[in-house]
Amino acid sequence: MTLGHLMVEARAKLVKSLELTSVEARIEVQMLLQRVLGVGRAYLIAHSERVLNDAEKNSFQTLLQRRLAGEPIAYILGEREFFGLNFKVTPATLIPRPDTELLVELALQRISKQKPCKVLDMGTGSGAIALAIAHTCPIADVLASDASAAALAVAQENARALGLTNVSFVQSDWFAAVGTQQFDLIVSNPPYIEADDPHLIQGDVRFEPVTALVSGAEGLDDIRKIIGQSAANLSAGGWLLLEHGYDQSSRVRNLLEAAKFESVFSACDLAGIERASGGRISA
Q: Which residues pair with 14 in a beta bridge?
């Protein structure tokens, strides 16, 4: 079987089994083949008549079967791009998603590019948010925290791979190990899914760590905790920015206002959904 025929057959299987669009399935098949053959996308297009040897074919079929079973492509390949950077991901971390790039953009708009500032990213996972901020703003001093030692190890490995020296790490259950440190900005993509949300048994999230997804009956337990405790660790005029669920923006704004945050707002992702909210404490 030629490379071209193999791609067509595999794409059809992904469309049927996972209900992907034809475009999504084609991209995923190409990604798997690029990994097996150690080539770029252009090679696959230019060499569609190539015949794979048995070892290559078996390696590809092994990866394809994992994907057909529903395992996320990011976990199969062990990496995902976020904010123009490549991140290692494992089942110990959430998979960075394009929606979360909004949180990074909001953070960068609120920290100084001319003078040092301190940033805390809580629940850092793979380190995507913290490292994107640290990479884009080298003058920032970023602290990344996570309660999971396994996730923190992945974030530290990503920092080393990116050559970042302006980020440090601490294992902490939210503010427990942060102490009295003061920050100009606190940012977090915390768990915010309701415990009985049917999406938990669908798609990629079936394979992601539940503790990084679920937060009580309303999905707001961790957000309440962060809002309630963050003021003690924010410098005068400091900002708190949070990602949340598609239908939680008004409730998160109410929580911020009840905690005496000022300039409370919500921001929309590329789909026009209010995906992040924040506010600042009095200067």
A: none
